[in-house]
Design brief:
Strand content: under 5%
Number of helices: 11
Radius of gyration: 18 Å
Number of strands: 0
Helix content: over 70%
Structural class: mainly alpha
Order of helices and strands: HHHHHHHHHHH
Number of domains: 1
Oligomer: single chain
Largest sheet: none
Shape: globular
Length: 211
């Protein structure tokens, strides 16, 4: 069991630190909206992972894996949402905000609250069916015969979630330290375009990926 747990932690570490749409979203909010927004985004992402953990333990995620229409529907929702966030970073849907930002200070461009970043992180994770497939294909490999599937999935999911929370939160704090430089007008505009294009690219990739 210890060998299996050690192997799980080693492989989970690689998965956690691999860049993806969640990390791109945390990066965007860390550098453009500050530390609070970044941390709340990370919390939202890991709240989504917690939901997927419970769903996998209850067998709901298995239904998603087995049902092509359900997988496709969630994949479309996820890709559309990522593309929407990317377009939002590029300045779409913000015509009123842009006209007001000409007279407002740069630091007031985004609200300080964490509600919207938390929601972005949560939905970005929940709308990604690849996470559900992960929980129904990766975690079962570390369940030995005779183990309680429900308890084992919850345990391994909780470990994975804790690792993700530590990584994303730490990453958010480090990335937000560079926010002062990257919120300068010209740099901010360039970075908005970069993160917007990255999120759109992840959305397109999600839409075209197979299970």
């Amino acid at each position: 069991m210890l060998h299996g747990l050690a192997a799980f932690i080693a492989l989970a570490t690689l998965l956690v630190i691999t860049p993806g749409p969640d990390m791109a979203l945390v990066t965007k909010n860390a550098l453009l909206r500050g530390r609070t927004a970044a941390v709340f985004t990370a919390l939202g992402v890991n709240a989504g992972i917690a939901v997927w953990t419970v769903a996998a333990a209850l067998g709901v995620a298995t239904i998603l894996r087995a049902s092509a229409p359900a997988f496709m529907a969630l994949k479309i929702l996820g890709s559309v949402y990522l593309i929407y966030l990317g377009l939002q970073a590029l300045g779409f849907f913000q015509s009123r905000g842009k006209s007001q930002s000409k007279t407002a200070p740069a630091c007031a461009a985004s609200p300080a609250g964490g509600g919207a970043p938390f929601r972005q992180g949560l939905l970005s994770n929940l709308f990604n069916p690849k996470i559900g497939v992960f929980f129904t294909s990766f975690i079962p490999r570390f369940i030995a015969p005779g183990d309680s599937i429900f308890a084992r999935v919850l345990l391994l999911g909780a470990i994975f979630n804790a690792m993700g929370l530590l990584w994303l939160s730490g990453y958010a704090l480090l990335a937000s330290r560079a926010g002062g430089i990257l919120r300068r007008p010209h740099v901010k505009t360039a970075f908005e375009w970069l993160t917007g294009c990255v999120l759109i690219a992840f959305g397109i990739r999600l839409a075209t990926e197979r299970r």
